[in-house]
Amino acid sequence: MSAEKEKLEQKIGEALGLEMAAQKAVEDLESKGLLDEAGMKAKLNKMRKEAINHQTKLEQLVQKLSQSQGLNSENIQSTTACFHSSYDY
């Protein structure tokens, strides 16, 4: 596998991990009752929904690139898991 493909897989995995971490952060803040301030809860829930949307789009991109460019989706998911777990609270 070429170094460019490996780098692309890593970057996509990192992006997916960040989107997942953003969702988890909002969920954690909400569960701890830290989003009670007026407007803050709505703004952060909007950000969480955007992160979910971005994650979905990235996963669709991974599927397309895996088929058309031969990217290894397992490598991407591995990077995603490692990157996401480094942001666990």
Protein described:
This protein is mostly helical and 89 residues long. It has one domain. Helix content is 80%, strand content 0%. The chain is built from three helices and no strands. It has helices spanning 3-31, 40-68, 73-85. Helix 1 (3-31) runs antiparallel to helix 2 (40-68) and helix 1 (3-31) packs across helix 3 (73-85). The model has no long low-confidence stretch (mean pLDDT 84).
Briefly characterize the structure:
With 89 residues, this protein is an all-alpha fold.
Keywords:
89 residues, mainly alpha, 3 helices, 80% helix, elongated
Portion in beta strands: under 5%
Tally the helices: 3
Our Rg estimate from Cα atoms comes to 15 Å
Assembly category: single chain
Protein structure class: mainly alpha
- Total strand segments: 0
Global outline: elongated
Summarize model confidence as the mean pLDDT. 84
- How many domains comprise the coordinates? 1
- The end-to-end distance, rounded to whole angstroms, is 34 Å
Strand and helix order: HHH
* Largest sheet entry: none
Which residue ranges are poorly predicted, with pLDDT under 50 across at least 5 consecutive positions?
A: none
> Can you give the helix content as a percent range?
over 70%
Give the arrangement of secondary structure elements.
Blueprint: H1 3-31, H2 40-68, H3 73-85
